[in-house]
Every structure is written in C-alpha cells, then in structure tokens.
Amino acid sequence: MMKPIPLAEAHNLPFWRRPFTLLFVTAMAMPIAFYAWYALLNNFVIEVADFDGADIGLLHTVREIPGFLAVGVIAIIIFVREQVLGLISLFMLGVATAFTAWFPSLQGLLFLTLLSSIGFHYYETVNQSLQLQWLPKERAPQMLGWLMAAGSATTTVVFVLIVMMWDTLNLTYNIVFMISGGVTAAIAIFCLLAYPQFEAPTPQVKKMVLRKRYWLYYALQFMSGARRQIFMVFAGFMMVERFGFEVHELTGLYLINLVINMIAAPFLGKAVAKFGERRTLMFEYVGLALVFGAYGGLYWFGWGFMLAAFLYVIDHILFGLAMALKTYFQKIADPGDIAPTAAVAFTINHIAAVFLPVLLGLLWVVSPAAVFALAACMALVSLALSMLIPRHPEPGHETIFARPQPAPAE
φ, ψ for residue 400 (rounded to 5)? Predict the structure, then answer.
C-alpha cells in the first residue's frame, strides 16, 4: 500500500487524481445504480411483485435500517480508512442493485434492498465526512453545489436513456438493473485502484461523539430524516397509484427534476454562501410546508396530475437547499469531530426512517392526505428550529442562545 498523500500536497498530482476529482467521480457513479433502482422501483413492485401501500412502507423501513446503523462506521474506520470504506460501500450498492430483478418477491426484495442500502448509507456517511474534511470552508457551498450538479447530470443521463429506450428497445427491469448496478460497481473498483489515499490534516476521532453544543444540528437532522421519508416513499408512489404514471412517464418527471437541479445546484451553492445557512434553511422549510400541504389538497379537492407533477418538481428543488445543513455543521464543528459526527448525524437522520415508512404505509391505506398533512407539520417544526441558527455560526456560537467568544488580544 502506498503511503497516504497529505491534502496539502495533492495539488502536485495530475488534476484527474486529486481529492475533489475523486469526490466528483463518485458523485457521478452513485446515482447510476441508486436512481435507476429508484426510477423503476414503484412500477416494478406494483407490476411484478404486486405491492400495496403497506408493502412499500415495509420495504422502505428495511431500506432505512442501515442508515439508522450508520454509527457503525465509527467502529469500521478504526481498521479501514474512510476513503476505502466509501468505495467498498459504493461497490456493494452496485452489485446489489444489479441483481434486484432476480428476486421479485417481498422476501427477496427486502433482502436485496437491505444489502444495497448498507452500501448506499455507508457510502453516503463517509462521503459527507470526506467532503467536509477535504473542501475548504470558504469554498465549500459552491463546491458542494458543483458536486450536486454532477450527480444530477449523471442521473439525467440515466433517466433519458430509460425514457428513450424503455419502449423502443423493449427493455426489461433485469437489463436496466444489471447495467446500472454493474457500471457503478466498475467505477468503484477503478477508484480503488487509480486514486492514492489522501490524508486530511486533522486526525478524526474514532469513537462516538455526542456534544451538547451540536444539539441544534442533531435536531435539524432528525426532522430532515422524518420529512425526507414522506417525499422519498410516498410522493412517487402517489404518482403511480393515484394518477397511473407508467415507467417512462414517471422517469420523465424525474428527468425534469434532474435537468433543473443540474442547472440550479451551483446557484443554490452560491445562495447559501451569500444569504447564510439560517435564511436558506428558513426559505426551504417554508416552501416544503406549502408543497406538502398542496399534496394533501390533491386528495381533499381532487386536483389533477399536472399540479401534482409541478409540486413534485418544486419539492425536489427545495430539497437541494439542504446542503446548507452540511455547511452549518462544517462551520461549528471541531475538525476532528467531522467523521464521527457524520456517522452519528446519519443515524439520527434515520431514527424516524426506521419506523415512519411502515407506520405511514398503514396510514396511507386509510388517508393519503393525512400523510402529507403530517409532513407539512414536520416542515413547520424544522422552520422553528432553523430560526435558532445564528447569522454567522462558528464554534462557541452554534445557536442564537450561545454568544460568540471574544477574540484573544494580540
């Protein structure tokens, strides 16, 4: 194994082997498997596996269990470098996705979903940690915006290919799952072999970190996880169940989202840098409360599918502003806390994810509108919490209740 290269010396490497390039490549690789799976999932489970709302809720509960156990990353990085763990997890996501269509039953899909989810959530945990360690604070919002745009661009290509070729080439679920999963796995292997190991300047604490001064970040993560589940699980399911969207139609809607996000993501990063985390998150949560309330109106007032599609696009754009939560933590964190806190935060984010999908799946059978009304209430709680973020967060000034420490005299 070659000696790790300090980040300060990485600029001597060719551009394609630098840390940001690695983050860029993996940001493009992950969506190939994950979003191909996500694009086909609702139609696959309804048409092939004969799922109802309770089944899809159970599937997503199982999918979120590894996210709840993301704190286990802390134990693994004692023995395995974060960079290596992230790429192995990405490989696991690809392989599990490739074999999804081979097991078209509730039990088989639960098992493969669990495997792919371990890969996805452990990759995302490590990826978020490496982003905050490797990206300079002053440029992090803009660089995170470009990484988000890269992921959106890749997902756009995946969706375009599905929309254009699903009927034209008579594609099957198995073909799409195998190709998308195989490509992601191959890129993960390439990155393991082609990139050197990068050494961040501050060693990471390799034990669980729960600090009182991070309480607001933890609370916002918890609410974000609860709210995100309703969007991820039930918004797309609604399009198929209520409005009868077919594979190419639902994927086309995803495609519109991705094209807009690809264009908007760098500007969202600039908005976070210009307006700050407090105002950015407040804007996001107000918008989400209105969108989820309107989702409920689709059922209460019988509004049509065009409005539903419009709301889905706005919903997706607003979630892009969640990068402000990352940069908020980057500003208040001790540098050595980033890796363990990323794992803890991922677990906190998924506490609600373990039980909400299955419980809300049962509620969905009774009243889909009530599910979206609950999501609107969650967005309002997040809005109240975001008001506690100071205009210029920093260590010792994590909330409006904590006064900044005076600078020492020189």
Answer: -70, -15
pLDDT more than 90, % of the chain? 20
| Upper half-sphere CA count for residue 214 (Cβ side, 13 Å) | 23
pLDDT tens, residue by residue, 20-63: 899 999 999 999 999 888 878 877 777 777 676 677 777 877 88
pLDDT band at 229 (very low <50, low <70, confident <90, very high): confident
pLDDT tens-digit map of 369-393: 888 898 899 999 999 999 999 988 8
Phi, psi of 87 (to 5 degrees): -75, -35
C-alpha pair distances (Å), 73 with each of 34, 129, 385: 20, 11, 28
Q: Is 370 exposed, middle or buried (0-12, 13-18, 19+ CB in 10 A)?
A: middle
- Mean pLDDT (the chain) is 83
Q: Using the Cα atoms of residue 2, residue 135, residue 403 and residue 398 in order, give the sign of their dihedral.
A: negative
Residue found by looking up tokens 């993996």 in the block:
26
Which residues are registered as beta bridge partners of 397?
A: 394
In contact, 156 and 255? CB cutoff 8 Å: yes
Distances (CA, A) of 84 to 87, 122, 180, 184, 347: 5, 11, 22, 15, 21
Residue 391 DSSP class: S
Alpha carbon distance 233, 261 (integer Å): 20
* Token pair in block for residue 12: 């001597």
Q: What is the pLDDT of residue 409?
A: 41
Euclidean distance between CA atoms 356 and 362, whole angstroms: 10
